Amino acid sequence: MAPNLVVLGAGVSGLTTALLLARSGDYNITIIAKHMPGDYDIEYASPWAGANYLPVATPGTPSETYERTTWPELAHLAESLPEAGVHFQETVIYRRAKDVGSATGDWFAELIKEDAWFRDVVPNFRILPKSELPDGIDGGTAFTSVCFNTALYLPWLTSQCLKHGVIVRRGIVSHIAEAANLHHTGKRADLVVNCTGLASLRLGGVEDSAVYPARGQIVLVRNDPGVMASVSGTDDSSDEATYIMHRAAGGGCILGGCLQKHNWESQPDPNMAIRIMRRCIELCPKLVPEGKGIEALSIIRHGVGLRPMRKGGPRVAKEVISGVDVVHNYGHGGYGYQTSYGAAQAAERLVRETCGSSRPRL
Ligand code: FAD
């Protein structure tokens, strides 16, 4: 009999982990989650993400491995699977010397390096000459990245799971061990994979005090600037940044943003929204017709998401909680898409180590 697994959580971490496990054909999997693709909720980070691939990991950390090993998977999606809603986008990253030490400057510290560790990972990495830098910018790089249309990608991941036999159900647990009783067979699961993101702070049996939110506010618009661009900081506040991400397949364009640590506020701040829109037009004037301002932005929605940050980085680890084998995969902060395949592969290895598979190997 194939081991029975419950994956708790249907964000990008839970769905990717479930998909890799299901593709192997070695497990009998149920996904249980309070929120599913299609929902927009402050407790559910994944739909709010841009989402693009802008590596921020410190070299030598597991996150670097996750980001490095995720890129080929994302390039494959963009090249070969248009139905996933991921496309290549040319990207420019601008650095301002005065942002060093600010919340956003620290966030961008690896991303803005001219000798960035990922320069051989992404295609077409180059250092921008001074002649290509806007006023007020001290340096910059450009490369080819990808951008997800999360409104297509999350349902696509779910469909891929269904195609590989995963059963997907709504459920809410207050303790991680309860999830073992929710396998669709009615039998107790052999292992639970914990992909609950920010909820791991309070989830019974996990209660990881290293987990905290970093609030991100965005404006989704119909305008198309033709490029993705980010700058390391702003003069408005040390926890505000400026970034533009154009989503695949009609997903609109994300204007951001901020990185407000320990801020749980779920509602968009209208003043910040105006600052975001102004700054994005300043950064990328092609967003609107020449001479126009924020009135020329066609707004789809304002949004707020909470990045599931974790002191010390993401947690991909195994432990036994109240007699239940658990593999954790959470704490992916502002980089859960760009680490998704690498982290899911690491979680899959831990699942195999813990409960193996009864399927006969050919
Ligand atoms: P979540 O998406 O939050 O999913 C958690 C799941 O667990 C949900 O299904 C929830 O219902 C379920 N759950 C929780 N508790 C329980 C419970 N007790 N019982 C049952 N179910 C439970 N990342 C990038 O890589 N690139 C980007 O460009 C990017 N941009 C971002 C921009 C913003 C504004 C934000 C907010 C985030 C951004 N991120 C980006 C980060 C990315 O969105 C997150 O790292 C990622 O979505 C985390 O996914 P997750 O599956 O771990 O958590």
Automatic annotation (TrEMBL):
<comment type="similarity">
    <text>Belongs to the DAMOX/DASOX family.</text>
</comment>
<dbReference type="InterPro" id="IPR023209">
    <property type="entry name" value="DAO"/>
</dbReference>
<dbReference type="InterPro" id="IPR006181">
    <property type="entry name" value="D-amino_acid_oxidase_CS"/>
</dbReference>
<feature type="binding site">
    <location>
        <position position="334"/>
    </location>
    <ligand>
        <name>D-dopa</name>
    </ligand>
</feature>
<keyword id="KW-0560">Oxidoreductase</keyword>
<feature type="binding site">
    <location>
        <position position="196"/>
    </location>
    <ligand>
        <name>FAD</name>
    </ligand>
</feature>
<dbReference type="GO" id="GO:0005782">
    <property type="term" value="C:peroxisomal matrix"/>
</dbReference>
<dbReference type="GO" id="GO:0003884">
    <property type="term" value="F:D-amino-acid oxidase activity"/>
</dbReference>
<keyword id="KW-0732">Signal</keyword>
<feature type="binding site">
    <location>
        <position position="243"/>
    </location>
    <ligand>
        <name>D-dopa</name>
    </ligand>
</feature>
<feature type="signal peptide">
    <location>
        <begin position="1"/>
        <end position="18"/>
    </location>
</feature>
<dbReference type="Pfam" id="PF01266">
    <property type="entry name" value="DAO"/>
</dbReference>
<dbReference type="GO" id="GO:0071949">
    <property type="term" value="F:FAD binding"/>
</dbReference>
<dbReference type="GO" id="GO:0019478">
    <property type="term" value="P:D-amino acid catabolic process"/>
</dbReference>
<feature type="domain" description="FAD dependent oxidoreductase">
    <location>
        <begin position="5"/>
        <end position="347"/>
    </location>
</feature>
<keyword id="KW-0576">Peroxisome</keyword>
<keyword id="KW-0285">Flavoprotein</keyword>
<dbReference type="InterPro" id="IPR006076">
    <property type="entry name" value="FAD-dep_OxRdtase"/>
</dbReference>
<protein>
    <recommendedName>
        <fullName>D-amino-acid oxidase</fullName>
        <ecNumber>1.4.3.3</ecNumber>
    </recommendedName>
</protein>
<keyword id="KW-0274">FAD</keyword>
